[in-house]
Amino acid sequence: MRGEPDAFEQVTPVERPAPAPRPAWSGDRTDWERAVEKLQILRELDRGYTTFGARTHRYLVRPKATTGQLAAIEKKLGVELPPGLRAFYRNIGDGGAGPDHGLFAAAELEPRRPGTAYPGIAALRALGARTDAQPPEPTYADLSPSRLTGIVTILSSGCSLYSGVVCTGDVGRIVHWDDDRIVETDDTLAAWYERWLDDEIARFELVLRMRDEGATIDAMVMAMKRLLSSGRSPAADTSRARELVEAKLRGLSPEEAG
Length: 258
Known about the structure:
Layout: H1 33-45, H2 54-57, H3 67-77, H4 83-92, E1 110-112, H5 121-126, E2 140-141, E3 151-158, E4 161-166, E5 173-177, E6 182-188, H6 189-212, H7 217-230, H8 238-252, H9 254-257
Helix pairs in contact: 1-6, 6-7, 6-8, 7-8
Protein name: SMI1/KNR4 family protein
InterPro entries: Knr4/Smi1-like_dom (IPR018958), Knr4/Smi1-like_sf (IPR037883)
Pfam families: SMI1_KNR4 (PF09346)
């Protein structure tokens, strides 16, 4: 039986699989109908506002922006708003309910040189002081967000975490950043927004079903852990799954949580 290699035996390193090629940017989305329906579902499930940021926006949107208001903001920014963001402001509401603490109102958008084209993550990685030290993930760049262009900031997640949408370049693409890292996504605003709703609804419905079946908290935690591990989120540890289960239970029955 073969044991451990001896001190002089060469061990072939395990190579990381090459990342799958990313699709070409296909453009923005302006269809918000499904998201509006799902927002109502989540609002009814989370009566205790336990989803992160929900106490800020309470799943409410502001009155719709007018065409004139948006035109004035675009003139001030020097660029047209991405179609998906413009459609939200015009047809859904002028900011409010959304991922984390919700979307900024149109007048609160923070420009990051929106008239200069967003260069893409490969170019941003090349701008790093040490390109050989860049993260292995091809959609990440260790770089100050001061180098970002072509973007307006649309929300804050707190702790110096922000999200923006590309206005010039890959129009409609969502980009996230903090003080020293930039992350490019293949999401449009509508796709990202709808996935946030899908993920939260799935978590609430899991806990609701298992609660009604009389399941124990521990059983809910294991089911939540599997749900998180099989989705787009990284695999969650048990403490994170338990935290979510307890929050969802409070959200479903705030009167029992006291």
